[in-house]
Design brief:
This protein has 114 residues and is of the alpha+beta class. It has one domain: Glutaredoxin. The protein contains eight helices and four strands; from the N terminus they run βαβααααααββα.
Length: 114
């Protein structure tokens, strides 16, 4: 089962969902705001993707963090920050069951679903 993780009102999420819908690809949408995120899933993502890729450093949530939190980032600290601020996760995170892909672009999704 394909799962798309993110926040419903995010513009990039809307583009990804529209792309999947238009392509006729069935998926489950996991909204962090409503369903949260368990620590085990986050641990798997951190192991596979790394915290540097997983954290959206362009977003408002990142910019609102204190400078010392940004500069002293370790994997354990990143995990705590993410669990306390799920909006820090780069969106969307698409889990195809075999591949996890961060962000959205038409070309990337076309490659993933050839």
């Amino acid at each position: 089962m394909i799962t798309l993780y993110g926040i419903a009102n995010c513009d990039t999420m809307k583009k990804a969902r529209q792309w999947l819908n238009n392509a006729g690809i069935e998926y489950h949408f996991h909204d962090y705001k409503k369903a949260g995120l368990d620590e085990t899933t986050l641990d798997l993502w951190l192991d596979e993707l790394g915290y540097d890729a997983l954290i959206n450093k362009r977003g408002t949530t990142w910019r609102k963090l204190a400078d010392e939190e940004k500069t002293s980032l370790t994997e354990e600290h990143a995990k705590t920050l993410i669990l306390n601020n799920l909006s820090l996760i780069k969106r969307p995170l698409l889990d195809t069951g075999t591949v996890k892909h961060l962000g959205f672009s038409d070309a990337d999704y076309q490659s993933l679903f050839k």
